[in-house]
Amino acid sequence: MSGNEIDPEILEAFVDDVMELLNSWEKEILNLEGAGDEPDFGLFFRLAHSLKGSSKFMGLNEYSEFIHNIEDLVTLLRDKKIVLAPEHIQIFLEAQSYLMAWIKEIRNDLKSPPPPETIISRVIKMVEAAAEADNAAEIKEIMKSRPSPMQPPKSDGTAIHHLIEQDLVLS
């Protein structure tokens, strides 16, 4: 967090909401794993999008950005730019495990450590590897428009609700 005090009731509601989303995340990953040739990434995308928005709203930009990287990978899978593989399931499960541990820690200490660089770099490498495919220009454009890993988005001084509305329009 940015050092601002958060109302304990708001923090508790945030933690409860994120834990519920992460429990659904795990179930959806396991559903995707068993889905065969035509997995439906719609619910998984919405879960990642909700987690991203909630984190951004709370000012947890490192987590929002981490989840946005996951969302980019899910978008590529959903749009059939890449094919679901065991390494995607593995990274999604690792991310869920990390995020679950993180949210439990947030309840006690808002200054928890940032997401591990190893998971972030693996997700980014998966997205970049997709750039070698037929859709290289489109994927590279997506990656170019994104801030570098672990760098909070540049602030233009607008209110947080404007950023959330803009994100909903762009995503």
Keywords:
7 helices; disordered C terminus; mainly alpha; single chain; 171 residues
Structure overview:
It is a single chain. With 171 residues, the chain is an all-alpha fold. The chain contains 7 helices and no strands. It has helices at 8-33, 42-57, 61-78, 86-106, 117-130, 136-144, 160-170. The radius of gyration is 16 Å and the shape is globular.
Tell me briefly what this model is.
The protein has 171 residues and is mainly alpha-helical.
Topology diagram in text:
Elements: H1 8-33, H2 42-57, H3 61-78, H4 86-106, H5 117-130, H6 136-144, H7 160-170
Shape: globular
Global mean pLDDT = 77
| Secondary-structure element series | HHHHHHH
Number of helices: 7
What does the oligomeric state look like here?
single chain
What percent of residues adopt helix (DSSP H or I)? 55-70%
Low-confidence stretches: 150-171
Q: Provide the β-strand percentage band.
A: under 5%
How many strand units?
A: 0
Distance between the termini: 24 Å
Structural class: mainly alpha
Largest sheet: number of strands, sense, barrel closure: none
